[in-house]
Design a protein that fits this description.
By secondary structure, the protein is α+β, with helices and mostly antiparallel strands. The protein has 4 domains: 2-26 and 38-72; 73-155, Beta Barrel (Thrombin, subunit H); 177-269, Thrombin, subunit H (Beta Barrel), CATH 2.40.10; 279-377, PDZ domain (Pdz3 Domain, Roll), CATH 2.30.42.10. Helix content is 25%, strand content 33%. The protein contains 6 helices and 20 strands. The protein has helices spanning 2-35, 40-75, 97-100, 118-121, 266-275, 342-349, and strands at 78-82, 103-107, 113-116, 127-131, 137-146, 151-155, 177-182, 192-209, 212-222, 234-237, 242-249, 257-261, 281-282, 285-289, 309-314, 330-334, 337-338, 357-364, 367-374, 376-377.
Length: 378
């Protein structure tokens, strides 16, 4: 009986201690919670993060608005080009593109010089017909054209025209956003804008036309949609600078278009702008860079070089004929300017005039040699 009372007393004591402990612990938590203060620094960080998110949204909206403004401004500098004169108020009629030879160009000076493709405008001194963004028509004269490059410069008699700004096509990067503007299918879709990225640089493509093969080198590849009527239109960066001239599209694949780098024609435009004329100098050779060699057959397949351009043929009675330059030489530089592509050579030659002297550095087997020659007129 005593043992039973003793056990009951122990249980009562243990239960009492447990409840006391729970009460003390609960009181401690309550008082601690009451004394907790809000960390103002943490609160400020949260506000800053919220502000950053809001600013990011605003920046995106602002960027989108800026691009729309840029596109709207640039389209005013884009023209329609036709080889055939139309009796209507504009070349942008319901006639098919094949009937009018419809293409695109863009204004590069305030007094009416326009850049396009030579297959759009025709050869030097031929006539074509230009329609401005406001619908005004002009007859244009092709002042310069190069069918190998597929570039031409047309002149119309106009003043105070809006004109494009040039970018640096040598400094573009794969992945940059670009926009193409042109007249892809005719009247209904004039000045269509498409967007994409720079997919690759320094591309070489082989063209088969009228049972003849030709090569276009050092092209900018883009996935911005380019249809036949886009030919000659500008390829532009997000800041509105033109970095290429849209030229060809591979019809057997989607999302593969090409543009000619704008840098190659800058010296010619400057000459027309400053003097109204341009005399084209030439070395008098046919040459290939290393990107073209894999496309060639015969003995060319055994040619291997890392830098420079390969002299495939010296034109008879040309500036290089009867000089120390030989077929099979590798030209690595001209007047100290390193050469890796044909466009490198063209860009430099376009800055020179006939009868000026240049120095070529060449490799011939194990021989390294400097050769001087006088440029001729093309």
């Amino acid at each position: 009986m005593r043992r039973k009372r003793k056990n009951n007393s122990k249980k009562i004591i243990i239960v009492s201690i447990f409840f006391i402990f729970v009460w003390v612990f609960g009181f401690y938590l309550y008082t601690t919670y009451q004394n907790i203060e809000i960390d103002q620094n943490n609160y400020t960080v949260e506000r800053q993060q919220s502000t950053i998110k809001e600013q990011t949204v605003e920046n995106i909206e602002e960027k989108s608005t800026n691009i729309a403004d840029m596109i709207e401004e640039t389209t005013q500098k884009v023209v329609g080009i036709s080889k055939l004169k139309n009796t209507g108020s504009s070349i942008f009629t319901n006639s098919e593109e094949s009937e009018l030879g419809l293409g695109t160009g863009f204004i590069v000076t305030q007094d009416g010089y326009i850049v396009s493709n030579s297959h759009v405008t025709g050869e030097k001194y031929s006539k074509c017909y230009i329609t401005l963004e406001n619908g005004t028509n002009y007859e244009g004269t092709v002042m310069w054209a190069d069918s190998d490059l597929d570039i031409s410069i047309v002149k119309i008699n106009a003043k105070n025209l809006p004109y494009v700004d040039f970018g640096d096509s040598d400094s573009i990067r794969v992945g940059e956003s670009v926009y193409a503007i042109g007249n892809p299918i005719g009247f209904e879709f004039r000045r269509t804008v498409t967007s994409g990225i720079i997919s690759a640089k320094n591309r070489t493509i082989k063209l088969e036309e009228e049972n003849k093969s030709s090569y276009m080198t050092d092209l900018i590849q883009t996935d911005a949609t380019i249809n036949p009527g886009n030919s000659g239109g500008p390829l532009i960066l997000a800041n509105g600078e033109v970095i290429g001239i849209n030229t060809v599209k591979i019809t057997t694949a989607e999302g593969i278009g090409f543009a000619i780098p704008i840098n190659i024609i800058k010296p010619i435009i400057e000459s027309f702008k400053n003097t109204g004329t341009y005399e084209e100098a030439t070395i008098g050779i046919y040459a290939y860079d290393k990107e073209v060699i894999p496309y060639l057959s015969g003995n060319y397949s055994r040619i291997n070089f890392e830098t420079g351009i390969y002299v495939a043929q010296i034109i008879k009675s040309g500036p290089a004929d009867n000089t120390e330059l030989k077929e099979g030489d590798i030209i690595t530089s001209i007047d100290g300017i390193e050469l890796n592509t044909m466009n490198d050579l063209r860009e430099y030659i376009y800055t020179k005039k006939p009868n000026e002297e240049v120095t070529l550095k060449i490799i011939r087997g194990k021989l390294n040699k400097d050769i001087k020659l006088i440029l001729g007129k093309k």
